[in-house]
């Protein structure tokens, strides 16, 4: 459980994940693209808090997978 949120089961969701790097001046930011089996062509940018000391792509993975599947849109986290 992260921050008091209930655990989300996402094993049965058909959402593809693709890890990418977003280039900046002298470094890159890791990001993940979630693409559901059905998509409505829309995209959500999911920016989590943490101030670069708490939370990772993996810690928010279940929420992003759930949102992509439930909303039928692509998520970039």
Please explain how this structure is put together.
- The model has no long low-confidence stretch (mean pLDDT 85).
- The longest helix is centred in the C-terminal third of the chain and has 11 residues, at 61-71.
- The chain has 77 residues and is of the alpha+beta class.
- Strand 1 and strand 2 (28-36) form a beta hairpin.
- The chain has one helix spanning 61-71; strands at 15-23, 28-36, 43-45, 74-76.
- It has one domain.
- The chain is globular, with a radius of gyration of 13 Å.
- Strands 1-2-4-3 form a four-stranded mixed beta sheet.
Number of H- or I-type helical stretches: 1
Q: In the residues, how many domains can be counted?
A: 1
Helix content range of the residues, please?
10-25%
Number of strand segments: 4
The spatial strand order of the largest sheet comes to 1-2-4-3
CA radius of gyration is: 13 Å
Order of helices and strands: EEEHE
**What kind of sheet is the major sheet?**
4 strands, mixed
**Broad structural category:** alpha+beta
Fraction of residues in β-strands = 25-35%
Overall shape: it is globular
Task: Give the low-pLDDT segments.
Answer: none
- Report the average pLDDT across residues: 85
Cα(first) to Cα(last) distance is 19 Å
InterPro entries: AB_hydrolase_fold, Lipase_GDXG_HIS_AS
Family: Belongs to the 'GDXG' lipolytic enzyme family.
GO molecular function, one term: hydrolase activity
Protein name: Alpha/beta hydrolase
Task: Name its key features.
77 residues, alpha+beta, four-stranded mixed sheet, 1 helix, 14% helix, globular
């Amino acid at each position: 459980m992260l921050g008091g949120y209930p655990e989300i089961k996402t094993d049965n969701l058909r959402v593809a994940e693709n890890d990418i790097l977003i280039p900046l001046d002298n470094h890159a930011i890791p990001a993940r693209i979630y693409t559901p089996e059905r998509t409505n062509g829309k995209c959500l940018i999911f920016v989590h808090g943490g101030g670069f000391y708490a939370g990772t792509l993996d810690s928010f993975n279940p929420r992003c997978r759930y949102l992509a599947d439930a909303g039928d849109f692509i998520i970039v986290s």
